[in-house]
Write a structure and sequence with these properties.
Length: 200
C-alpha cells in the first residue's frame, strides 16, 4: 500500500490567527507532500511494502534512514492535522482523558507546562508528545522524524516543532507557538480517541 496525502478536514484559514493559511499551505501541500512522495520512492523495494504505516516506521528505524525519516514524518503529520481543529485547545477535556492526565501527569496545568517545556527544549527540529507507555501517560520529545512508536510507546498527541510549522507566524518564538497550540488548537476529542485505542 502506498502512502497518500490526506486532505485537511478544515479550511486552510480556519486555524488563524494561531496558525495561518500560509503556514498550512506550505506545511501540508509542500512539506507533507514531499514526505509522501519521497516515502513512496523509498518504500518500493524496501521489503516493507505490504506493511501498515506503523510497521513501516518501526521496521525502518535504525535500518533504512531515508524510509524511516519520510514514513515517520508521514505518520506524524497525518495525526498532526487531526490533533488540531478550529476553536480547539484549552482545559476542557473529555472526562476519561482528564482523569488519566491527573493520575499520570499530576494536573492539566502540569501537563501544559511540561508539554510546552518539552517542545521548547527539543534542540533543533523535532516533536513533543503525550504518549502512552506501559498503560501510563508520559511527556516525551524526539528529534527530526522520530516518534514514540520507536520507543515502545504510542503517541496520542504531538506538536511539530520544526521551524516550518511556526516560523511564518511566530518567527523564533517557539514557546508562544506551543502555548497557542495547547490553548487554541488541540482537538481533544481526537486525542481521546487515540488514548482509547492505545489503552484498549
Ligand atoms: Mn512538519
Amino acid at each position: 500500500m502506498s502512502f497518500e496525502l490526506p486532505e485537511l478536514t478544515y479550511a486552510y484559514d480556519s486555524l488563524a490567527p494561531y496558525m495561518s493559511a500560509e503556514t498550512l499551505e506550505f506545511h501540508h501541500d509542500k512539506h507533507h507532500k514531499a514526505y509522501v512522495d519521497n516515502g513512496n520512492k523509498l518504500l518500493a523495494g524496501s521489503g516493507l511494502e505490504g506493511k501498515s504505516l506503523e510497521d513501516v516506521v518501526r521496521g525502518s528505524f535504525g535500518k533504512n534512514a531515508g524510509l524511516f525519516n519520510n514514513s515517520g514524518q508521514h505518520y506524524n503529520h497525518i495525526h498532526f492535522w487531526n490533533w488540531m481543529k478550529p476553536n480547539g485547545g484549552g482545559d476542557t477535556l473529555p472526562a476519561s482523558l482528564e482523569k488519566a492526565i491527573s493520575a499520570d501527569i499530576g494536573s492539566f496545568d502540569e501537563f501544559r507546562g511540561k508539554f510546552i517545556e518539552a517542545g521548547t527544549t527539543q534542540f533543533g527540529s523535532g516533536w513533543c508528545w503525550l504518549a502512552v507507555k506501559s498503560g501510563k501517560l508520559e511527556i516525551m520529545k524526539t528529534p527530526n522524524g522520530e516518534n514514540p512508536l520507536v520507543h515502545g510507546a504510542t503517541p496520542i498527541l504531538g506538536c511539530d516543532v520544526w521551524e516550518h510549522s511556526y516560523y511564518i507566524d511566530y518567527r523564533n518564538r517557539r514557546p508562544d507557538y506551543l502555548a497557542a497550540f495547547v490553548d487554541h488548537l488541540i482537538n481533544w476529542e481526537y486525542v481521546e480517541e487515540m488514548y482509547r485505542k492505545a489503552t484498549a
